[in-house]
Specification:
The complex is a heterodimer of chains A (about 650) and B (about 280). Chain A is about 70% helix and about 0% strand. Chain A is built from 26 helices and six strands. Chain A is mainly α and about 650 residues long. Chain A has helices at about 1-15, 20-40, 55-75, 80-100, 115-145, 155-175, 175-195, 200-230, 235-240, 250-260, 270-275, 280-290, 290-305, 310-330, 335-355, 360-390, 400-405, 405-420, 425-440, 445-470, 485-500, 505-520, 525-540, 595-620, 625-635, 645, and strands spanning about 50, 110, 555, 565, 570-575, 580. Chain A has one domain. In chain B, helix 1 (about 5-30) packs across helix 9. Chain B is globular. Classes of the chains: A mainly alpha (about 650), B mainly alpha (about 280). At the A-B interface, helix 19, helix 20, helix 23 and strand 3 of A face strand 1, helix 3, helix 4, helix 5 and helix 11 of B.
């Protein structure tokens, strides 16, 4: 699948005529989706693969060298010494390592497959594939109507999308950390190119920012590989995960650092906000199914090593702080994409929080969050992209009355938002599970979650309200969608729906086996709760039915405007006989929550926490006492928190 | 008592108790203001009258939201009294409140819009404290289930004094009483008219009233949980809390939203979170 996606990418680079590209993208997407689905049918004990592909290793080495060369060229051209230093340091380290130790690394299990990778492969295949199909129609309109000034480089664009997907599959399946590193760097480079696609000054600047931050993570990754090899003579992820010694903490902490840069955790959140300048499919891809998910995937993978350690605690704190800060900042934003970006950062924070806690319940919740977030967030991004094209604005205030102007899209957005925060839909189930996991592990961390989720509630509902309220009769916007857009949007709406309905099934057939495989036991929501939630779900789904009664038995009057109504509910005669228009504007509380101030303190806190995390990791790897305490804590079950097991019978 | 019986009792008795409490509230408030006040059963007469009125709306779908608000509030209380998971109860309550807010948004009048925004602010203000209360109860009783919390042998108030006080504070917001009646004043004020309920009339307004009755009984039930091991004391304190809310309503003027948000979050951090930290230290 990795190779297939890469090949598709190369193929697309060569394909110029549009209708051929359409066909090719559709076929490639179908292949990727089918491949991901086929993984579901694989026999239950999925395992590792030990094939020794020397030429693959060599190829990757050359690939890395080529990428490093390209980035060096970019950094010199754009005069960014920081990027130059980062790339030289990491490329030098890795190339030296491969040349020095390459021959000893024969016989490494390069690939590894379990239920967790299958879940991510599905998300990557289905959601990522959906985005590619959507991009067909979207990019045509982008170049032919909305942004004529931007150079049309669509073959490159689609090639990058597929290379991106391929690299993501690589990250998911790799067990050899060197392989993982290679794919990691491919996503970094692809995201750089995609963010800078439009070639404007702002886009270039933001792309470079993303590059610098991700390279910092890459450097940490490279150091982690070398450190791990020096201490324990292996480059396999699974061996790192299985090791219980304190020595594993340093590479784990470094890898978490790398993961958190990709997942845009606090000091590094800036690049994800900057990524909004790219065309919508790119934002959707980065935010929902690929780039950031690679980061949280790595952190969640590492969580067994982090359980009950101070490093894990600090990782959790970074995640918790990010969640709170991003949610508060989202209140102040009126740019739809920015709200979505903040909400992404916040949700990633929650997932990192789960990974840092590292109990079975928290990992279960984290995986669930990944799934629901990917589907619902992608849907929202794609909808906002279309609204932006049709109404030439992505300000939430201009979306007033969208329910009448673009009913289909508005309903889809409402579904997406409901999926993001409303009971009893997906994200809320996961947040609920997170809260329980947090209370069982570190009750003090719950404060971040409760305040963060209160803020989430505020900014989502006011957006929903904006879509629903209708003040003026406004012109209907053309709602014609390209077929790719239709397929992607309806598919994702359906997927959001199905994921919510079928979540007990997803949990029992995919998440629980993985968690049980790692921890020996697993968590799930009790049957009683599932029944209650199903009742709630049915109640909410009945709501659209009430529209059968639309307009029956009611008398329609004008709204009360506090003066004499001059023209229905739209204008009124105010004091001094002046006729005023009615305007409604949401609260953004910008004086109360200062976005810049919040972001600044968030960055400071995040930097401090990350520094503390790395220091603790180095320190605790030297203290045998800590190791013993940790080993005792992670010993099979009689953990210091007996409540963790109680969760099983919720 | 079996959960089904409790459930049934709640469904039938809650509106009656809630309505009586509302009548009592109006009478007592009137006496505090040196007025005669309406008869005790006045809220029931009001609702019956509202029910017979013509349905007047601004937007044709606005009343659908209110119907679901009512259904979900009843559902929330039902979950609570059947002894279900406390967090689930909170989420159901939030969902109900969101329907109410969306209904007001849909009505699209400036006053209901303002009320909806302010209601959201209030939700943001009380939500952390309410969740922390549930967490505190869980830390003491090791269960989120209402029936296990209620039958816990110790008096929760001794372990959770901070949470109890903080919960009282948010209760004022939840009852939409002064000084926290930002979103819908009980007396038409110029700058707000009737806030979130401005554009609802007839049956929809009646449904909002009934929903409040159910909600109030459920909230007082939650106060009872702090005294679960001594039922008589629990009921007495719940009623005392209700009296206190009425008193506060008549004593204070309305606060600005900034003050509400700040103070509620401060209370949640100091009283609620402080209580939880102390608990986790002594665990």
């Amino acid at each position: 699948m990795i190779l297939g996606s890469f090949a598709a990418g190369v193929g697309l680079l060569c394909l110029r005529p549009e209708h051929l590209r359409k066909l090719f993208v559709a076929l490639a997407t179908a292949a990727v989706c089918c491949g991901a689905m086929a993984l579901l049918r694989l026999p239950a004990p999925l395992g590792a693969f030990t094939h020794d592909y020397h030429w693959v290793n060599l190829g990757m080495m050359f690939g890395e060298a080529a990428m490093a060369g390209y980035i060096v060229y970019i950094s010199i051209r754009s005069r960014k010494p920081l990027i130059l230093a980062l790339i030289l340091a990491q490329a030098g380290l890795i190339l030296w390592f491969e040349l020095a130790h390459g021959p000893q690394l024969r016989g490494v299990r390069n690939l590894y497959l379990d239920k967790f990778s299958v879940i991510l492969a599905l998300i990557n295949g289905v959601v990522g594939g959906g985005i590619c199909v959507y991009a067909l129609g979207y990019m045509r309109e982008y170049h032919e109507a909305a942004h004529r000034d931007v150079a049309d480089r669509r073959p490159l664009f689609f090639a990058l999308l597929f290379v991106f997907l391929g690299a993501m599959f690589g990250i998911i399946f790799a067990n050899n950390l060197l392989w993982l590193f290679f794919f990691w760097e491919v996503t970094t480079l692809c995201s750089f190119l995609l963010i800078g696609y439009t070639g404007t000054a702002e886009a270039r600047e933001n792309a470079l920012k993303a590059l610098a931050m991700n390279l910092a993570g890459g450097l940490a990754f490279a150091i982690a590989i070398v450190w791990l090899y020096q201490k324990s003579g292996t480059v396999e992820l699974q061996i790192l995960l299985a090791s219980k010694s304190g020595a594993a903490l340093v590479p784990a902490a470094l890898l978490c650092f790398a993961g958190m840069t990709k997942a845009a955790q606090l000091p590094f959140s800036g690049w994800l906000l900057g990524a909004m300048v790219a065309p919508t499919p790119v934002s959707a891809l980065l935010h929902s199914s690929t780039m950031v998910k690679a980061g949280v995937y790595l952190v969640l993978r590492l969580s067994p090593v982090l359980t009950w350690t101070s490093v894990g605690m600090l990782v959790a704190l970074v995640g918790a702080t990010t969640f709170l800060v991003a949610s508060l900042a989202a209140i102040t934003a009126s740019d739809a994409k920015k709200v979505l970006a903040y909400s992404t950062i916040g949700n990633l924070g929650l997932i990192v929080l789960c990974g840092g806690i590292g109990t079975d319940a928290s990992v279960w919740a984290g995986v669930l969050l990944i799934i629901f977030h990917a589907v619902a967030k992608c849907l929202l991004f794609l909808c906002v992209g279309i609204v932006e094209h049709k109404s030439h604005s992505r300000d939430i205030e201009t979306m007033s009355g969208l329910i009448l102007r673009m009913p289909q899209l508005a309903v889809m957005m409402l579904i997406g938002m409901a999926g993001m925060f409303l009971a009893p839909f997906g994200m809320l189930i996961s947040k609920w599970a997170v809260l329980k996991a947090v209370v069982d592990a570190f009750p003090a961390l719950s404060i971040f979650v409760v305040f963060g989720s209160a803020a989430t509630l505020f900014f989502w509902v006011k957006w929903m309200g904006k879509l629903l309220e209708v003040v003026k009769p406004r012109e209907q916007l053309p709602e014609k969608l390209a077929w790719g857009e239709t397929v992607a949007l309806y598919g994702l709406s359906g997927a959001t729906f199905l994921a919510c309905l079928l979540f007990p099934l997803i949990s029992s057939s995919l998440i629980e086996p993985y968690v049980a495989g790692v921890y020996g036991h697993s968590t799930s929501l009790g049957q009683g709760n599932v029944i209650i939630m199903t009742i709630m779900m049915v109640m909410v789904m009945l709501f659209p039915l009430s529209f059968i009664n639309y307009g029956r038995g009611v008398k329609v009057m004008d709204a009360y405007l506090g003066g004499a109504n001059a023209q229905s509910s739209v204008r009124f005669t105010g004091s001094g006989n002046t006729v005023c228009d009615v305007t409604l504007r949401n609260y953004y509380l910008q004086d109360f929550f200062n976005e810049k101030l919040i972001a600044k303190w968030g960055r400071i806190a995040g930097t401090a926490l990350l520094a503390a995390m790395l220091t603790t990791a180095v320190l605790s790897s030297r203290e045998p006492a800590v190791q013993q305490a940790r080993n005792a804590a992670t010993a099979p079950l009689p953990s210091p928190q007996p409540t963790a097991t109680k969760l099983i019978s919720l | 008592m079996s959960p089904w019986l409790r459930l049934l009792l709640y469904l039938v008795a809650a509106p009656i108790i809630g309505g009586l409490l509302a009548g009592f509230d109006r009478r007592l408030s009137a006496r505090m203001q040196a007025r005669q006040g309406p008869p005790l059963l006045q809220p029931f007469y009001d609702v019956i009258k509202l029910w017979q009125k013509e349905n007047i709306v601004v937007r044709r779908s606005q009343n659908f939201y209110i119907l679901f608000f009512l259904l979900l509030v009843i559902f929330t209380g039902a979950l609570f009294f059947a002894g279900s998971d406390l967090l689930l109860v909170i989420f159901a309550l939030t969902l109900a409140a969101i329907f109410f807010v969306l209904g007001a948004y849909k009505a699209s009048s400036p006053y209901s819009f303002l009320g909806a925004e302010r209601e959201l602010l209030q939700m943001m203000a009380y939500e952390p404290m309410v969740l922390l209360t549930a967490i505190g109860m869980y830390m003491v009783t090791k269960s989120f289930h209402v029936h296990e919390i209620a039958s816990h042998p110790s008096l929760l108030i001794f372990a959770l004094p901070g949470l109890f006080l903080g919960f009282l504070y948010t209760l004022e917001i939840k009852f939409r009483k002064s000084p926290f009646d930002l979103s819908c004043s009980h007396h038409a004020h110029q700058e707000l008219v009737r806030g979130i309920t401005t554009e609802f009339s007839g049956r929809a307004l009646a449904m909002i009233e009934i929903a409040h009755w159910y909600e109030n009984v459920f909230l007082l039930g939650w106060v009872y949980l702090f005294f679960g091991s001594m039922p008589a004391l629990g009921v007495a304190v719940s009623l005392a809390v209700f009296l206190f809310v009425i008193l506060a309503d008549n004593v204070f003027a309305r606060l600005k939203w900034q003050a509400v948000l700040k103070s509620a979050w401060l209370v949640a951090v100091i009283l609620g979170f402080g209580n939880i930290v102390v608990l986790s230290l002594f665990r």
